[in-house]
Amino acid sequence: MLLSAPRASTAGSITRNMDQRTRLLNVLRRRGADRQPFICPGGMMNMAVTEVMESNECRWPDAHLDPQMMAGLTLGSNRLAGIENVGVPFCMTVEAEAMGARIDLGSLEHEPNVSIYPMNSIADIDKLARLDPNIGRTKVCVDAVRILHKEAPDIPLFANLTGPISLATSLLEPLTFYRALITNKEAVHELMKLVVRSLTTFGSALIEAGADLVCIADPSASGELIGKRAFSEFALPYINELVKHFRKKFRIPSIVHICGRVHTLGSALSEIEAESISVDAVINIRLLKKLAPSKIAMGNVNTYLMANGRPDRIFRDGQRCLKAGAGILAPACGMSTKTPVENIRSLSKAVLGAPQNAV
Q1: Distances (CA, A) of 8 to 26, 39, 191, 210, 354
Q2: How far apart are CA 296 and CA 254, in angstroms?
Q3: What pLDDT is stored for residue 16 in this prediction?
Q4: Of residues 220, 203, 201, the one with CA closest to residue 212
Q5: Which helix (H) or strand (E) holds 304?
Q6: Which among 46, 51, 24 has a CA at the least distance from the CA of 35?
Q7: CA-CA distance, 122 to 302, in Å (whole number)?
Q8: Residue 81 and residue 342: Cα distance in Å, rounded?
Q9: Tell me: the pLDDT tens digits for 184-238?
Q10: Rounded-to-integer distance, Cα 72 and Cα 143, Å
């Protein structure tokens, strides 16, 4: 099952002079590459579509619970759709579940979501469980990484982590958490410290199992939701703590995804210490490069267009992103499971004619 998925028709030419792992890591480490990579990390930035699930016989929700199916589905996305990476998990609920949240595993078309929060107030930090990467779905993800590391060593393997603010809002009802940013800052910091310890534990387990790099997605930390001041106090230092830990201990790079109109964060965006910043479609790549000029710009093809548009339009939008200066081509957010494989392949074709000066 794991190796049965057919390869995308463009895969042979896409690889060219570098394997996919070397290309992406070289771009992130500014060591030079033959062209920009086309990736979709996983986690919040979902790569799994129903067409791949059906072709590969690795379907949601079963793939959330079985490491062989989990590995097979992400590898199928690489081989069938031309996405130049693999990565797990396929949702943002694994860490929350390990810390005590009750999870609805969703369906073939919908990813898991939190059904019951383990905290009723910001003071309920003692109700949270200690994340253990050796049990439950955390172990499923770690085991899937081991399989992928063995079976696909030339494909970059992502450890996908829920960002600190987004994990906190999966442990406590979001509006209650956002109010606490103003009314009980000390308790929020205590929660954030515990969240980062859990993310460090999970991320480290995934890396030790064979992950090559980390993607931290924190959509709940957008400027519209918390503002620049709260971002600088409650998101930025904890995101950076994770990035610096993985770089120092494991010498691996990180990508951070922030949703929304990130220009409202101003200079705080450039203070994120990850090698690459990913944004959604409301921000164009040229603006991202102005806001964070020292970072590799990643993105940012509209995912609604990917699900509903024509392949030629998607191809042109991919080329537009590359010409604007994207060092890594990617969807702007998680893809709809209804996205046609043909549309995804349009972006794998777009990178073939990428401008070399962007990498």
Answers
A1: 23, 14, 44, 25, 19
A2: 11
A3: 55
A4: 203
A5: helix 303-308
A6: 24
A7: 36
A8: 7
A9: 999 999 999 999 999 999 999 999 999 999 999 999 999 899 999 999 999 999 9
A10: 12
């442990």: which residue's tokens?
Answer: 171
**Strand, coil or helix: 9:** coil
Report the helix count and the strand count for the chain, using DSSP H and E: 15, 9
| Cα–Cα distance list, 122 to 179, 200, 226, 320 (Å) | 10, 21, 16, 44
Q: How far apart are CA 173 and CA 184, in angstroms?
A: 15
What 3-state DSSP class applies to 232?
helix
What's residue 83's pLDDT? 98
Q: Mutual orientation of helices 164-171 and 174-183 as an angle, nearest 10°? A: 110
CA distance 354 to 351: 5
DSSP 3-state assignment of 262?
A: helix
The pLDDT, as a whole number, for residue 252 is 97
* H-run or E-run covering 279: strand 276-279
DSSP secondary structure of 14-29: HHTTS-HHHHHHHHHT
6 touches 57 (CB < 8 A): no
Sheet with 157-162: list strands edge to edge.
86-88, 157-162, 213-217, 254-258, 276-279, 296-301, 328-331
Compute φ and ψ for 183, nearest 5 degrees: -95, -20
Spell out the CATH class of 11-358: alpha beta
Residue ranges of the chain with pLDDT lower than 70? Answer: 1-16, 353-359
- Distance between CA atoms of 289 and 118, rounded to whole angstroms? 39
pTM: 0.93
What was the pLDDT predicted at 17? Answer: 72
